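Hi there. Long-time user, first ticket. I'm pasting a complex I've been working with (about 1224 residues overall). I'd like to know whether the download I got is complete or cut off, because the file seemed smaller than I expected. Thanks.
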Amino acid sequence: MIEQMQRTDLAVELQEDLSDKEILAGVHVSTQVNEDNDIKETKILIDSPEGAESFGKPMGTYITIESEELRLGDEEYHEPMSQVLYKHLVNMIGGATKILVAGLGNRAVTPDALGPYVVDNLYITRHLIREELLDNVYDISAIAPGVMAQTGVETQELLRAVVHETKPDLLIVIDALAAMNSDRLNKTIQLSDSGIAPGSGVGNHRKAITEESMGVKVIAIGVPTVISVPAIIEDAMDMMLEAFGRNGMREAIEEFTDEERYELASEMVKPYLARMYVTPKNIDEAMKRISYTISEAINHLHHSYI
Amino acid sequence: MIEQMQRTDLAVELQEDLSDKEILAGVHVSTQVNEDNDIKETKILIDSPEGAESFGKPMGTYITIESEELRLGDEEYHEPMSQVLYKHLVNMIGGATKILVAGLGNRAVTPDALGPYVVDNLYITRHLIREELLDNVYDISAIAPGVMAQTGVETQELLRAVVHETKPDLLIVIDALAAMNSDRLNKTIQLSDSGIAPGSGVGNHRKAITEESMGVKVIAIGVPTVISVPAIIEDAMDMMLEAFGRNGMREAIEEFTDEERYELASEMVKPYLARMYVTPKNIDEAMKRISYTISEAINHLHHSYI
Amino acid sequence: MIEQMQRTDLAVELQEDLSDKEILAGVHVSTQVNEDNDIKETKILIDSPEGAESFGKPMGTYITIESEELRLGDEEYHEPMSQVLYKHLVNMIGGATKILVAGLGNRAVTPDALGPYVVDNLYITRHLIREELLDNVYDISAIAPGVMAQTGVETQELLRAVVHETKPDLLIVIDALAAMNSDRLNKTIQLSDSGIAPGSGVGNHRKAITEESMGVKVIAIGVPTVISVPAIIEDAMDMMLEAFGRNGMREAIEEFTDEERYELASEMVKPYLARMYVTPKNIDEAMKRISYTISEAINHLHHSYI
Amino acid sequence: MIEQMQRTDLAVELQEDLSDKEILAGVHVSTQVNEDNDIKETKILIDSPEGAESFGKPMGTYITIESEELRLGDEEYHEPMSQVLYKHLVNMIGGATKILVAGLGNRAVTPDALGPYVVDNLYITRHLIREELLDNVYDISAIAPGVMAQTGVETQELLRAVVHETKPDLLIVIDALAAMNSDRLNKTIQLSDSGIAPGSGVGNHRKAITEESMGVKVIAIGVPTVISVPAIIEDAMDMMLEAFGRNGMREAIEEFTDEERYELASEMVKPYLARMYVTPKNIDEAMKRISYTISEAINHLHHSYI
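Hi, the file is complete. Here it is re-exported in full:
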């Protein structure tokens, strides 16, 4: 759900903000690039409260899968991405077999429709298992709860109610994210076991969807589909300073931290612009392709059941 | 949700099956036609268990609003229908002010999309009231829970969970219905305070959505959008007998009750045909118009709040 | 476009009506079943005006691909069907390289949305070739012209205009069809090189889409997604006669030709029922799967270009 | 169609760029505010080639209707806007009675779906008139031609073909526009009789849709639903200069013309950002409301026919 936009929802972008030598206690980063298919996987493990505090994300594992090709739209490219996502997903799921998938977001706003689109293509089995028409498969149920403007109910409330009633072992939430770097739009998938825990931002009415609030383990799968307006402004700011600044101002700004620069950009933005987002013109094709990549990874679980 | 199809979901059609002189104890019928706008209102009150048993519907009030014009699609015709529905709705709602509206059915199958389409056009206020942006209006929330093939979860389970979490005073369920008489398709609205209580039909996995199962009062608004295949066959049976029967067979069949005739027709239908429905070719236009008529009636509640 | 429904749009069903020994001059039938994947292919070649007259279809080649599995919905089953369709398609296309695909039908009515859904998933290249961003691929353009109730314009007029303006070598039209036998719904693909030539039925306002009317070769790809109400009645008639008829009537009817029986059934059906269709409740899943099977077959053309 | 974005598509924004005293020969502006409903109407008449050159828009009449309320979403507010639009539309239509409405844009990308949504709600009569089921009404046909990425065909080509085949007196094109000022998004309707004539921008492959290219009079109805990224940057530039600039740079920039400032902002924007747009998060609600306002205005024509 694209509601209150963070500077970035991607752990990998926070990590890039760190200077090369900077090492945060409790934050462990490893990267691998598969030469064959040009897929880059970054794993960020935050294993202490200090790490969470300094890094700016809750404790947990954040896996980012990136592929230039996913964005370019090669017809057959979704398969390797889907396989890599599946591999990490199986690993995170562990022994859970009763899985509720929640496709967050607004089906009627293209870049926010990722979650509902994924749910549309899932192979649902819970009712078939209960009617004894199937066995030896994962027990998959799914819901696309809509957004608060459509339902009047917070997503967290709805999911808590459904989890309480249907008692899955695990909740997978699929959501559209905001990135800072437009290079990552629609080509990056982030998988994490820390749920969705929106920052403490003023005006944030969407509450956390985490193991703590839900009572079951929560895995989040997200794809950046939009950039916030302040991130765009921040991006332009550098170029403006490059272009004009010769006289102290530029140096002053360069001493700012990334967070301070984002706040500066946010202040430059008129209030209504904070309720806007930036998205590519061909977002419809991107959403179709990426949602299919994710739903295929989840559907592939049925092949692995023992 | 068009799942297990009854002979008819309309109380008014059951009532028509009765012969003129037949009077059922505990079943009270009154009819009124508004000459101005050609809208016919039929009220059937079932006020004893015996009435429910003999009539074949749970105790409660069933109001049917019919209009030739609604079906014909006059551009401005939705207004009188909407007004009449609103009038009965306000009456049934009584003092309830916190209302959850559930749009049942499958958005991806046109004649089953009535509920989701109504929800799409509601004016939702629950979140605005909670954020203190609005007051002195009905507290409206809404959900389109999808169907079991999409979610793996029974509609009843999902609604019970949401009712338990959000604690409305009243649940309004909107659903597509089956009629026997194709004259009624897409031109009749049925309103009842007995919830949705599918018959005891074998294989019916959709459990009742009633005050008893939900814990709050339930009002059902339904529109017949399909006919079941057996009802079509039954219809044709009369004409076949008319055409061919000169020899005892016809008389034998004419002694059957309506229920027996429907069962006979059902047996004639191959099993897979029972999972099919009959619907008009212009069902898309009908659904748009009727869902708008209903959503306008519900939205009009906000004008009546004291 | 499901407008004026024929008894059947499938050549293979007309062929089945023939008694075993019946041989029509100018009609050549061959059948093959692939044991590996259980796909049955029937090729009907009508090569003389007499054959067309007696068979009831225009001269040309009609290939029917049937698979039990396609209907059952095995997740991976679309691939063999798609391959078989592709094989026949390449063959029929011959040397044509500039192809306009027209997805007929009404996107807003689920069983009529086959054509628009196929178009949604095609890999379109015409504009990329013209901008010199691509070469050595088929030049594919596509249109979903909607139905007359939405546009006010006959499909034939719209297509003729677009063909005249964009000058393709070949027009492929995708359309939802009516079958008589519900066993064939959503599991059969018919490919023909005779275009779409609706019968001479009274009231048929959709004119032919053929090489003659379009000025370019026309290939039609169709899938039966509905049954007409009279076909259902005709189906039930046998069972009724079986059940009741012991006295001459049954024998009388058995002497009727299939065409006469259909007309009898049509007369039994009240007029408004002729504007209705019969379709399965899970038509949404079927449409998604089948449209994907067809779009993949067309997209696969790009791999075969020399 | 949101393809190549201009600085602004709104004549009223170009007019605001002019300083107060600036008077352009051949450009006539009049404004009126209706106190009752707070609707502001601005009429810009460009009646000489010099006016067109200096103003930056083709010769013709541009009427802008603005309403704060349309954006705020008051449930009943569409009516006065619809009435005002209808009034100007009747006037521009003159004696034309055979009207083709083209809903441009991509139905699958929310802020670009204005045109298709309007077409969905039109009362189409052309086929009914031809079948002699209706007379004494405007002859309305409509098409939503899709975008080039979906069809491979330029919108201009498709429309020219349909106009040539169906021979209307008048073409009305409905399109989503780009504005500079986010205050205008989704609350402004621009009506003009000069068609759609995209600027001479490099890379603009959408050709003009004008009386000259179509052979019939063209009326364009547009609503700004997006802002281009450079316009956002330009907006922020002022605030940055305000914040930092004390030293000549600010003064230098302030001497730039608006056009120069936009180009400066465009250069600051990385190339891929030029293919992005900025749109509000609740764009789905806005599109539903505004498309209804426009379709009602067009449908109202049927009431005025003599």
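A couple of notes from our side: The first strand of chain B starts at residue 27 and ends at 34. The radius of gyration of chain B is 20 Å.
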